[in-house]
Structures are given as structure tokens and as C-alpha cells.
Write a structure and sequence with these properties.
The protein folds into two domains: 34 residues, no CATH class; 129 residues, GTP cyclohydrolase I, C-terminal domain/NADPH-dependent 7-cyano-7-deazaguanine reductase, N-terminal domain (GTP Cyclohydrolase I, domain 2), CATH 3.30.1130. The chain has eight helices and seven strands, in the order H-H-H-E-E-E-E-H-E-H-E-H-E-H-H. Helix 1 packs across helix 2 and helix 4 packs antiparallel against helix 5. The longest helix is centred in the middle third of the chain and has 16 residues.
């Protein structure tokens, strides 16, 4: 990979042997390894050991989860916040695992729509709750630095499963809670 990064530097008009760039190939390799570590993690294994039985059946909301990802179209960052909720049906999950689930999928080359859906579907498949709701609000540097160059534009995506899709009052409760 370091050879490819040196070649990339050369192709954009840089000298990879310049003092300031000598260690860049190694740094980029390590950074990309971290930013794509989600490919090397199993989503089910991440939360399976943190699931436990409980009678609690009210909405659980984890909001304002910071996320950082790379757009699969331009390899430029997008960043923002995820809000995740579920209605337990006899099974709860440690709340930190919800944030870790967002990170796992964000640390892959992504589109925001897929990131939103993958998070919701994985929680739904493992917990079997009454429903799951996920809303992600993010800014995309591919829209801000190039292309349309619209600084400050926010993209909002949602995935509503089960009761969050079928029951308007459940969906409204979730949306109200994340706006507070």
C-alpha cells in the first residue's frame, strides 16, 4: 500500500522523497487501516455478549453519537451524529454497544443511507425488539470541498423498522426525543 501512496503522490505532482512527505505513505496506510477497521469486525459478535434478558419495554434512545466515515464515491470524509432507538421485547443490550455498532459500520467505505440501514437492521436481527429507529445527520466533504461546494449542507437519513414504521406515535416520540 505504501508504494501505491507514493505513486499517488507522484501522480498529483508531488515528490514523495520531499522531507515533509517521507513518512506520509506509512501514515496514510495506518490511517486507512483505522478508518476501515469495520471490515474486520463482526457486527453480531460485537453486541451478542452484551445482550441480556429484562422486562423493560419502554423506548431506549441513544442520541448524539458522533460518527466519522469515508464516502465510498470520493474517499472523502463525512461526519455527524447518529440517533438510535429501540423498543425492547424482553432483551436489552449494553448501551455502549449501540455506539460501537454505529462506529463499526461507519469505519467502512460508506454511503450514509446504507450506514443508517445497516445499523437498524443489525440491531433488529439480534435483539428482536418491537422496533428500531435510526436517524443520521451528517455533513459530506465531497459536497463541500468539490462538486457543488455547498458548505454547511446537512444530509438526514432514517431507517424505521417494526413499531417505528408501523406506529406513527412511536415514530413521533422518537423524533421528539432526539430533537430535545
Amino acid at each position: 500500500m505504501e508504494d501505491l501512496i507514493r505513486e499517488l503522490l507522484t501522480s498529483v505532482g508531488e515528490d514523495p522523497n520531499r522531507e515533509g512527505l517521507l513518512k506520509t505513505p506509512g501514515r496514510v496506510k495506518r490511517a486507512l487501516g483505522f478508518l476501515t477497521e469495520g471490515y474486520r469486525q463482526d457486527p453480531a459478535a460485537l453486541i451478542r455478549d452484551a445482550v441480556f434478558t429484562d422486562k423493560y419495554e419502554e423506548m431506549v434512545v441513544v442520541k448524539n453519537i458522533p460518527l466519522y466515515s469515508l464516502c465510498e464515491h470520493h474517499l472523502l470524509p463525512f461526519f455527524g451524529e447518529a440517533h438510535v432507538a429501540y423498543l425492547p421485547k424482553g432483551r436489552l443490550v449494553g448501551i455502549s454497544k449501540i455506539a460501537r455498532m454505529v462506529d463499526l459500520y461507519a469505519r467502512r467505505l460508506q454511503v450514509q443511507e446504507r450506514l443508517t440501514q445497516q445499523t437498524a437492521e443489525t440491531l433488529h436481527e439480534i435483539l428482536h425488539p418491537y422496533g428500531v429507529g435510526v436517524v443520521i445527520e451528517a455533513q459530506h466533504l465531497c459536497m463541500q470541498m468539490r462538486g457543488v461546494q455547498k458548505s454547511g449542507t446537512t444530509v438526514t437519513t432514517s431507517a424505521m423498522l417494526g413499531a417505528f414504521r408501523e406506529n406513527l406515535s412511536t415514530r413521533e416520540e422518537f423524533l421528539t426525543l432526539i430533537k430535545r
